[in-house]
Amino acid sequence: STMDIRVEPLPQLVPPTQPYTICDDNQDGIASFDLTTLDSGLLQGVTAYQLTYHETMADAISNGTTIPDFTNYFNIYPFVQTIYVRAEDLITHCFSVLPIQLHVNPSPVQPINLADVVLCDTDSNPYNGVVSTINLAAVIPSVLAQQPLAASNYTVRFYTTLALAQAGTAPIINTSNYTNISTPQTIWVRVEDKITHCYN
């Protein structure tokens, strides 16, 4: 009688070029990760592999405890954590394990208790509630004083709507001589970390 010896290749994953990074909105270093967003980059179109995510190398190797919810995983170690992805060939059942770095960058502190800007209407039309000498930039020191890092780490910009502030588009350009469009008017302040681009 005869027998064949077959050596099957291990699954090959394409490792991420940088850590999976999320901004943290409350400075505790814990955030929600959707691990399934890594799948396409890891697999690069290969459909024969089954991916599972694990908190330890031992679990990944033994196919033990998996992370239960791949779409809403909260890291258990603040700011930096390594998890492990297991790729198993569904035909040969050969597998390989790859570490994945999770990073949580703290967002700037949300500025609170910013003083309202109140001016008297002293221009040529003193009854329309519109002036062209509003100095929004005067608020910046108060915003930066509430941040955990040095002021030079942040940029502060002003927006006319929350949507624009969240998108970081169309900021108010003339912040030292701004003309309001109504009274009262709400202005949104966006403070952003220059390095991580996390914002509040």
Give the arrangement of secondary structure elements.
Blueprint: E1 20-24, E2 32-33, H1 39-43, E3 49-54, H2 57-62, E4 73-74, E5 80-89, E6 95-106, H3 140-145, E7 154-159, H4 162-167, E8 188-193
Parallel strand pairs: 1-6
Antiparallel strand pairs: 2-4, 3-5, 5-6, 7-8
Task: Provide a short characterization of the protein structure.
The chain has 200 residues and is of the alpha+beta class.
Q: Summarize the main sheet.
A: 4 strands, mixed
- Widest sheet: strand order? 1-6-5-3
Helix/strand-derived category reads alpha+beta
Query: Kindly, what is the distance between the CA atoms of the first and last residues, rounded to a whole number of angstroms?
Result: 72 Å
In the predicted model, the low-confidence regions spanning at least 5 consecutive residues are none
Q: Beta fraction of the residues?
A: 15-25%
Question: What is the N-to-C succession of helices and strands?
Answer: EEHEHEEEHEHE
Q: For the CA atoms, what is the radius of gyration?
A: 26 Å
How many H/I helices? Answer: 4
Shape: elongated
Helical coverage, percent range: 10-25%
The number of E-state strands comes to: 8
Average pLDDT confidence is: 92
Fold and architecture overview:
The strands form three sheets. A four-stranded mixed sheet has the order 1-6-5-3. Strands 2-4 form a two-stranded antiparallel ribbon. A two-stranded antiparallel sheet has the order 7-8. The model has no long low-confidence stretch (mean pLDDT 92). The termini are far apart. With 200 residues, the chain is α+β, with helices and mostly antiparallel strands. It has helices at 39-43, 57-62, 140-145, 162-167; strands spanning 20-24, 32-33, 49-54, 73-74, 80-89, 95-106, 154-159, 188-193. Helices cover 12% and strands 24% of the residues.
